[in-house]
Automatic annotation (TrEMBL):
GO terms for biological process: phospholipid catabolic process. Residues 1-19 form the signal peptide. This is Acid phosphatase. GO terms for molecular function: hydrolase activity, acting on ester bonds. InterPro entries: Alkaline_phosphatase_core_sf, Phosphoesterase. It comes from the Eukaryota. It comes from Mycena albidolilacea. Keywords: Hydrolase, Signal.
């Protein structure tokens, strides 16, 4: 069963009432500019966008999506506790349906188009997304996908060496259903926009 826990962390002074036992995560890499040995993708260096418009309270927004972990588990890890202490913790989450893919699609396009599975879809280019809203206001954006093999990857899933259980078979750490922008042709078929669908190593 896959649970969708979308965590939008803008800050918080609220401590979680029901703190679960923190899961132990191996660090993805030794530092923000160090490529993890466990990831398959190339590092193509970061996008060189400067802030294009000044926000009233902040200039950048980062939305962190955690998949297949419970809210309480993720929120009780030291890194998220530290972030939450710096501002607002948002705790009211609702899925629009089940399973994963339609929820991801709805988060980007405001609609899940009656989808009820995790199959291979592409949504016609006449359907607009949050990207149109951002670009209309001159706000730059990018999406970073863990274990995606290359920037702009369009494939369904990608199997990589199993770095949790090395003796086990290769594992699909990257799955397309969790990468909603690539599902929209308005992004994936636009040569300029698709360059902003990046691997996490960037
Ligand atoms: C790779 O994953 C293993 C198992 O989780 C972990 O022990 C190790 O620290 C990771 N290596 C890197 C470079 O992230
Ligand atoms: C990223 O790097 C790889 C390997 O050097 C290259 O094949 C690919 O075209 C690069 N992608 C972008 C978007 O620069
Ligand atoms: C959008 O494009 C699809 C596929 O080409 C077409 O079936 C649909 O009628 C179009 N919708 C609108 C509102 O133009």
């Amino acid at each position: 069963m896959s649970r969708l826990a979308t965590v939008l962390l803008l800050a918080s002074s609220v401590r979680l009432a029901a703190a679960a036992t923190a899961q132990i995560f191996a660090p993805a890499s030794k530092g923000p500019l160090v490529q993890s040995a466990n990831y398959t993708s190339f590092s193509n260096s970061t996008l060189k966008d400067r802030p294009t418009c000044k926000g009233k309270a902040f200039n950048r927004i980062i939305q962190v999506w955690l998949e297949n972990t419970d809210f309480a588990t993720a929120a009780s890890t030291p890194i998220f506790e530290a972030l939450a202490e710096q501002g607002i913790l948002l705790t009211n989450y609702n899925a629009v349906t089940h399973p994963s893919e339609p929820n991801y699609v709805a988060a980007i396009g405001g609609e899940f188009f009656g989808m009820h599975d995790d199959n291979m879809y592409h949504i016609p280019s006449n359907i607009s997304t949050v990207v149109d809203l951002l670009e209309d206001k001159g706000v730059t954006w990018a999406t970073y996908q863990e274990n995606m093999p290359t920037d702009e990857f369009y494939g369904f899933n990608y199997n990589a060496k199993n770095y949790i259980t090395p003796a086990a078979a290769d594992y699909p750490y990257y799955v397309r259903k969790h990468n909603p922008l690539i599902i929209y042709d308005a992004v994936s078929q636009d040569p300029k926009r698709v360059k902003r669908v990046r691997t996490f190593n960037d």
